[in-house]
Amino acid sequence: MTDQLKSSEKFTKEEAWFIEPFFTNLDKNVFAAKYLPSEVLGALASRYSRSSKGVRRLFFDEYIKPILEPNLEGADKRSTREAEIAKKELISFVEYLHQHGGWERVVNSKRARDFFAKWLAAYGDDSIAQMAGAHIFFENISNVATKVLEDFRIGFAPLEKSTRYVLFDQKVGGRWLYFLEPDLVKSKYGKAYTRTLNMLFKRYASSIEPLSKYLREKFPQDKDQSDRAYKETIKAKACDVLRSYLPAATLTNVGFFGVGQSLEYVLTKCFASPLFEIRQLAKQAQEELSKVIPSLVDRASSPRGKIYQRYVRNTENALEKMVRTIGLNPTEGSTLTELAGPSVDLVEWDEDAENKIVASILYKYAKLSYRSIKYQVSSMSADQKAEVIKKAVNLRQVRQHRLIRAFENTYYKFDIVANLGAYRDLHRHRMLTQERQRFTTELGYDVPQDLTAAKMEKRYVDAADKVDKFYKKISKDFVEQAQYVVMMGNRIRWYQWENLRELAWESELRTGPQGHPDYRKIEHLKVEAVRSVHPTLVTALKFVDWKEYDLARRESEKRIDRKLGLSQSGH
Predict the structure, then answer these.
(1) pTM for this prediction
(2) How many domains is the chain built from?
């Protein structure tokens, strides 16, 4: 295997003693958590998405260290006696775990293994695997890999490192943070692959300060904004703009909680992937999960699992050949770059959506069959139907007041073209059906407006053109692996198929003032498309924000200021 970036986190002997009982390893990029309460892991995952630190380092620094050194700034305010008791209890607990282990000693017992094997394998009772789960973390993996892993929806919840709060301008171990794709590195394109990605990271890093200077001149600090909030706001804006440079090979961190059944499914499908990185991650994840939920993940590589893997690979290959036979790919020399900027095409919707929604709203409170209710609704006037919808949404005061379930009874399919960075953000919505085409340069790229305004677009356009030429060269031989060189500024195509209730949740969330302008535009286009066919139903989406914002994070950082007791510049 190509020399990949190893875990950069190092722990002293004392630090390791305190945290090793809580993780399956301290020196690998893939590891599972043990013993930690769900509340702690949830808080860690939330911090994880905005920090350059890994989960294990965060756990020591933010949970263990304040107990060991209670006088540290920011540590819990305890009396001297309370601090000593807390320290003794921590040492005693960790010492117990070192000496006796924990619940996996029971899970790994022969009796437990026999029980799970019997009910999972012999009787096929997968419901058992829905009642147990694990937290698994992947660090220093590519954005290609995170998208594959995050494709799994039911019973598998992710939280990923953000490109908005963390800069990618530092080398680790003498190299930039991107995945060395083995098939490409070992090929005749190997040197060009590293040269191209090094170029992208160099231009990203060298653009941070000049762009930040431009942004500070354009957006002066507000009087009611602390130095901390202003600095973070400018940083977030710079990250939003410059992420267009980053390739899909960029390394990131992601954590998941999954139930046993979903983890088995993830591993099985990943073992069938054409990409080396995905297969390797599945192997490493199974090894770590076998230390905490062994009976629930063993089947992924069992004979039964291998049969499923063959089914996945053979189906993918057959469909790929079918596309070529039918002729659904562009011909040699043609271009797909006819689009400028994001586009949303509403390609499928229900003609009788209003009748479906109104009938479904009334169904719960009636005593007739659905067929009878819908028949009566179909004869109602437009105003009467609008009144029913109005009654169902009137009491919503904030977007967190979700639409009632009846709004799930009609669906919309959107065919979307937008940059990879925007897709990366919108992909995390779980309760919808979505499918993407391969990452490509063939749909062109977006040039961030602020780069143009700062007179910094020339180097970016040059970089995008270089990547496009390289992608087209390597994709002839390595169609899957070529995805790693695609920039986040390159446009890709995917579809979303979602019901009205999920559309409301997504569009109201993603058009908020803190949202990235690229995906805010996509959500606006989606809502406008639905308005053109169902104007009455769109009135239910009360909290879609149509305003324009110059600095997305300005007000959010001010709210953090108020929580921290900082309310004016100079603090």
Answers:
(1) 0.85
(2) 2
